[in-house]
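tool_log.txt
---
The assistant was asked to compare two proteins side by side. It first ran the structure predictor on the initial sequence, then on the second. Raw inputs and outputs are pasted verbatim so the downstream comparison step can read them without reformatting.
(1)
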Amino acid sequence: MTDPVILIVEDDQNLGNLLVYNLEKAGFHCHLCSSGEEALRDLSQRSVDLVLLDIMLPGIDGFEVCRKIRQHQLYRDIPIIMLTAKGEEIDRILGFELGIDDYVVKPFSPRELALRIRAILKRDRRHGGRVADILRAGALEIDMSRHTASLDGKELVLTMMEFKLMAALLKRKGEAQSRESLLSDVWDIDRSINTRTIDTHITRLREKLGETGSMIKTVRGFGYKLEENGS
């Protein structure tokens, strides 16, 4: 089996070289880019297993790079870990809303970073070889192993976070789930944080599901639940 290929997008040359050194020592094959534009060009020219993406970049920033990756048909499913010197919660929330898989705040341990990369690659559908895990409710179906969602046999185009939120609702079908628990389960964000991120994603999910969106019920003053009868 060939070494996993990591695309590192970091404009600090010293840090970039340090990342390459440590990750290649840990068994990965690395390509280093110093800007978002260069990273997008690189993605179109080679097969990549994971993107290690800094937020603060010259030209287009890491958030915009992430957005472009997630919108692209060919590499929208590539896992992304975001590197940031910022510790603000809003940066984490924005990153997760755009579809990142994990984030690491600078300074960080190279060994911990390597472990996080391995954990994400292990669960990624292109490396796991797992048996399909199908979740269903009415005409709605989610295939966890293939990371696809469909309604009446037609594929749904969901963001990473919309997919995770729908899966969380389907896994506990009929059970009321608080906004705080959904934030913790789907975004891995501390339960004490007060945010309306969940409400925004629920609204988008209902719109994409059309009439079937009525299965997602609002539990007033608490959160949401998915009921198969939908009415």
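(2)
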Amino acid sequence: MLDPAETAKVSVTVRNNTNTVQRVKTVRISGTALALTFFSYDTTVPFDVPPKSEETRSFPLEPTDLGSQAIGLLPVTVEVIDVQRESIASVRTTGDIRGSLWSVYGAFGLGVLVLTALSWAGALIALARRRLPANRWQRAMRFLPAGIGTGLIAVISLSVLRLVAPSPSAEIPFIVGAAAAALLLGYVTPHPGEQQPSEMDTVRIQR
């Protein structure tokens, strides 16, 4: 758990399986979601790891500005970086970020929510006014952005609510499923040129 109001105690163990000394200079802790990095902390912790051995180092981390960067469950990567600024090794885990809903990640989710609502509103209004394209696939594509946005909202909401952290195994089913449902909905919408029978026509047919 990373709380901007508390100092986190980080302990890193590096095992060197090579035949040369590995010189660690920096430990980097970063959080990503949907292929975007929302926070990153570099801490200088210089130490050498002899061949075929391991070393452990502990250090405090004060993520004071984390509240404005992210919130919820996020994939976190811990990397050890050498003196040439190259990553020696890394490990991925899940972090519980105690940030604000108005953080960059929270604002990103709210922005996606607004854009998705506008996409649905535009598509449904066009459907009600019979202004969708006559071609079925073009009508389906008209609903696609709204479906993708719905999938993104599901992924971000589960993350912010601390239920499921974003990952390819969680993101792809939600986004692809919502996009497919929106495509199907657009595909089966009625042809805009099809006229519904009026009440007078219905009376005449019944007679």
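---
observation on (2): DSSP finds four helices and six strands in the chain. The radius of gyration is 26 Å.
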